[in-house]
Design goal:
Blueprint lengths: L3 E4 L18 H12 L8 E4 L6 H4 L5 H11 L24 H20 L5 E4 L20 H11 L4 E5 L6 H6 L6 E8 L23 E6 L5 H19 L3 E5 L17 H14 L4 E4 L6 H15 L10 H7 L14 H21 L11
Parallel strand pairs: 1-2, 1-3, 3-8, 4-5, 4-7, 5-6, 7-8
Helix pairs in contact: 1-9, 4-5, 7-8, 7-11, 8-9
């Protein structure tokens, strides 16, 4: 059976970005508590592992020294007039908050710790739900992300000579990770997301396919608002399994943002936690034996808590009972793990979503598949 380590401590969930900010780190504690309520850590192949902070030399695998210093200085009350240069603002996506620097070091270090567990073969899958902060760029914060932990972790894996397939199922395009590996064939990046025509960061189109040695190794499947489980999973299956299998990675890295959920307040896809869980199940089947699983977006707390609990069950090859354990019900009032599916969009919108998905898949198969000796025909 698969050995699954979860990297977690309450230190990952204690910071507050801003009182009204949609990114609520306490979602991590709720997820841990629900996983624990299901007695997951009594499972013989489950491990709970303490995180550590990232070291500066690890951050510098992607981020500039100037930016790292600026994050520390701003966190300690440095010159606010410099904030905008580095992507920070009081009322924007990336506010400056007390303990910001340390919080970013913890979430990034937790992903590094997960990578270390895989490198020393301590487990088959290592999961850090506090990670997956895929928008941060070398010299600036972006989209709630200060340091790009997926990039740092992947660079550590690649430095050991490992081929890495990165699959991002967050509702937002994984632009920072794509940027980091746009010119290499050692890392295959695949992102399925709501189209940049309708959602931040406005990128992630099929024609963004890499450059130089990386040409054909950057893959984007944009989707139309209102895309639900069945259509999403169809697009996933058309693109992700054939490319990952052809690439033959040594390590699978997944960004498991669940802001694809139909109740998410910031996005417009229509997945249920069941649909999300099925995507995670199919990613599990693609793992070559080393799987680094990261969190990401998710701004409906119930969906995050339930979806990531389901995901950790997939990592353990365990299906949790649909009835939430009594201890969690009594504390939070959550009764059922699964969703009642939302009402379907109207026929015209469903048809538009279908056409958009078919066009995206066809574009990827046409432009990307030949680089991997795959037929571009469906």
């Amino acid at each position: 059976m698969r050995r699954a380590a979860l990297i977690y401590s309450d230190i990952l969930s204690q910071h507050v970005l801003r009182e009204n900010h949609p990114m609520v780190p306490t979602r991590l504690r709720y997820t841990y508590e629900l996983i624990d309520a299901y007695s997951a850590f009594q499972h013989p192949n489950a491990r709970l592992v303490e995180p550590r902070q990232a070291a500066v030399d690890e951050l510098r695998l992607f981020h500039s020294a100037e930016y790292i210093d600026a994050v520390r200085a701003l966190s300690e009350g440095g010159r606010l007039e410099d904030a905008a240069k580095y992507g920070f603002s009081a009322k924007g996506d990336n506010p400056i908050y007390p303990g910001m620097h340390d919080a970013a070091l913890w979430s990034t270090g937790a992903s590094v710790r997960a990578a270390e567990l895989l490198l020393d073969s301590s487990c088959d899958v290592a999961c850090n739900f506090s990670g997956g902060l895929h928008h941060a760029m070398p010299g600036n914060a972006s989209g709630f992300c200060i340091f790009n932990d997926p990039v740092v972790a992947i660079k550590l894996l690649a430095r050991r000579g490992l081929k890495v397939a990165y699959v991002d199922i967050d509702c937002h395009h994984g632009d920072g990770v794509q940027y980091a590996f746009y010119d290499t064939d050692q890392v295959l990046t695949i992102s399925l997301h709501e189209s940049g025509r309708y959602l931040f960061p406005g990128t992630g189109f099929p024609e963004e396919l890499g450059t130089g040695r990386g040409r054909g190794y950057s893959v984007n499947v944009p989707l139309f608002p209102s895309t639900g489980d069945a259509l999403y999973l169809w697009a996933f299956r058309e693109v992700v399994p054939p490319l990952v299998q052809a690439f033959k990675p040594d390590v699978l890295v997944t960004q498991l943002g669940i802001d694809t959920h139909f109740n998410d307040p910031l996005t417009h896809l229509q997945l249920t936690v069941q649909g999300f869980g099925q995507a995670v199940q199919e990613l599990a089947a693609l793992s070559p034996g080393k799987w680094l699983a990261l969190g990401g977006g998710g701004y409906d707390i119930s969906a995050v808590t339930r979806g990531w609990t389901i995901a950790y069950g997939k990592m353990l090859e365990t299906a949790w009972p649909e009835q939430v354990p009594a201890s969690f019900q009594e504390k939070y009032g959550l009764k059922l793990l699964l969703d009642t599916p939302p009402a379907d969009a109207d026929l015209a919108r469903r048809a538009q979503a279908r056409r958009y998905a078919e066009e995206s898949v066809a574009a990827v198969r046409r432009a990307i598949f030949p680089f991997h000796n795959l037929s571009g025909m469906a």
